[in-house]
Amino acid sequence: MAKTFIVIEGDDDQNFLTQLVSRHFENSEIVFIKVDTNGSSLSREAIENIRLETIGLAEKTLFILDADAPNYSKTKSNLIESISAIGEIDDENIFLFPNDQDGCLEDLLNQLIPDNYQHFFSGCITHYAECVNELEADLEVNKKDRLFIYTASLTRNNNFSSGSKRNYNSEFWNLDSEALNPLLVFLRNHLQNEA
Predict the structure, then answer these.
(1) What letter would DSSP give residue 168?
(2) Which helix (H) or strand (E) is 22 found in, with range?
(3) Confidence check: pLDDT of 195 > 60
(4) Tell me: the pLDDT tens digits for 137-193?
(5) How far is 60 from 184, CA to CA, in rounded Å?
(6) Which of 29, 48, 57, 160 is the most exposed place for a label (fewest CB within 10 A)?
């Protein structure tokens, strides 16, 4: 079976995608390449790493990164431009979190919180974050922090609350959510043997 390289931004992305792929796709051999991005483009070091790992994109390579920038289309065009330093890439091989729109992985994860926990997250944790963020400029509870608080509160285990160790195959996450459809369609188009 041919392996597929997936370029990602970090451990949180890898953990989430590993669990998602294992749940929805059988026998998919994935090799993750973690890179740093400079806003909406790839750093020189990242480009060289991708070039070496994928033999200049000769291997099947997907890019799943945060849109992060205020303009989705600008982010995608900047990525295509920086990837072109490696080789030719079809924009169909690029997916930007949360749903190929502006945002990030954490925006998608917020949508995967089941209905029975939404009030806890959007009410309690969001209210707490807003309160802390209003106290001082030096304090901030960001999107990652909110997800950590959510997971740590429900699992009562800080060791598995960070994104790189979080268990998404639990009652606290809905990996069958419609919010995943754009990502699952993207993966289905590139991976074989859907479970």
Answers:
(1) -
(2) helix 11-24
(3) no
(4) 788 999 999 999 999 888 887 666 677 788 898 899 999 999 999 999 999 999 864
(5) 17
(6) 29
Residue 101: per-residue pLDDT: 80
* DSSP, res 40: T
Number of domains in the chain: 2
Quick: pLDDT tens for 7-20. 998 899 999 999 99
Beta bridge partners of 38: 41
- Say how far apart CA 125 and CA 163 lie, in whole Å: 17
SS3 content of the chain, % helix, strand, coil (to 5): 50, 15, 35
Locus of tokens 């060289």: 48
- Residue 87 near residue 57 (C-beta atoms within 8 A): yes
Instruction: Specify whether 99 is located in the same domain as 183.
Output: yes
CA 192 to chain centre: 20
